[in-house]
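User: Quick sanity check before I run a bigger batch. Here is a single chain. Can you write out its predicted 3D structure?
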Amino acid sequence: MKYSRTTMAFAIAGALALSSTLVACGDDDSKGADSNAKVTLNVVGLLPGAKPEAQTALAAEVADFQKENPNITIQTKDYEWKATTFAADLAGGTLPTVFEIPFTDAKTLIANGQIADMQASVDTLSYAKNFNPNVLQYGQGPDGHVYAIPAKSVYAVGLHYNRDLFTKAGLDPAKPPTTWDEVRTAAKAIAEKTQQAGFAQMAKDGTGGWQLTVDTYARGGRLEDGKKATLTNDATKASLQFLKDMRWTDNSMGANFDYDWTGINQAFAAGKIGMYTSGQDVYTSLVQTNNIDPKTYGLTMIPLTGGDAGVLGGGTMAAVSAKANANEKAAAIKWIDYHYLRKYTSEAAAKKVADIQLASKQPVGTPELPIFSQQQYETYQGWIKPLVNVPLDQMTSFTSKVFQAKVVNEPAIATQDVYKSLDSVVQAVLTDKNANIDQLLTDANTKAQRAIDSAG
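Assistant: Done. Predicted structure follows.
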């Protein structure tokens, strides 16, 4: 890739608080696996609705994996993680054996004995000791064993914008907003000149709270202080007032105030939204699922204001069902290595994956943040540079700055419950002109504190 880099400034510190009920952490029994045993392994595939080209690329990868591992049969299941359904899916046994979870959920699942101890399996990887410890620790139990494995690069939230709508509104797409005032001005211009939403905000299934946390961090606030909920902080209030002003004073946020992650991506790709915030890696999904025109896409930093301002970061881990037997766990680590990680540590694997993606017209080179060292990631970038097909020159106002920014982890305790407590606040501000921000946040803070206390 072509973007400049400085010494990476993310060290996502601190461990997540555990559930009050800890289970005994047993040894990983994958040591007793039979390397010749026939195994059928169910794994997470693509998001529902992924384009045929993406399915073709995944099928090619599965076929190559099975050639390398003839005793393992891979069965993929399209799946999208959602806070509102994950617990039921897990309890009901409908998840694949290998599934994906957010960084924020791993500790609780470990404490509840719901995912497998994978330490012995991880130890078989040649690069086992090369993980960024600040990333790996989110999947480690109190015994130090690895239960969940970093699978997709850590993301930092950016401001995504539609270059075509910028042009139609008389704005320069090469000079995206750098302050929240400029975001507001641009949103108003887009709404007035194009009749599309200048700015949109996610608001349900935990995404409203997630993105309000993004806004809060960008203004220097935090939602938790140890085990104390701090949703009533000034930065969160300012963030909500900003949304309220754009919605009711500027009329620049369109008519849909019930977006989730899937819905907002779809609307953005269809040219109905000028700007929104989400992880910098969402471009891949916009191509695979939403058929976005790359020429219309732009990515920039979210505005940061205040001495403690930061960019919210997160990521995805691969976990294995606690019900998996030794042979399934041994097969799982081979799939996790092949599907998620090997491309970052092997030039041949990196080029092979990129070739498959390129042949299927899939994105190659979407900006990421490293799972391993920054040096290793830059090496990986060099391997795939000739095959990159994403418009990196339309993302430089993000990629040239994000490594200088403070990347802040999501709220550590009862994360999803904290997010859900804020969904209704965001929805109220966007649908009720007379919404009382102070009262809404006071009520949400009570709910969040109750969830934090219950988490132990």
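Strands lie at 39-44, 72-77, 98-102, 148-162, 224-225, 228-229, 275-279, 297-300, 311-320, 407-409.

User: Great, the batch can go ahead then.
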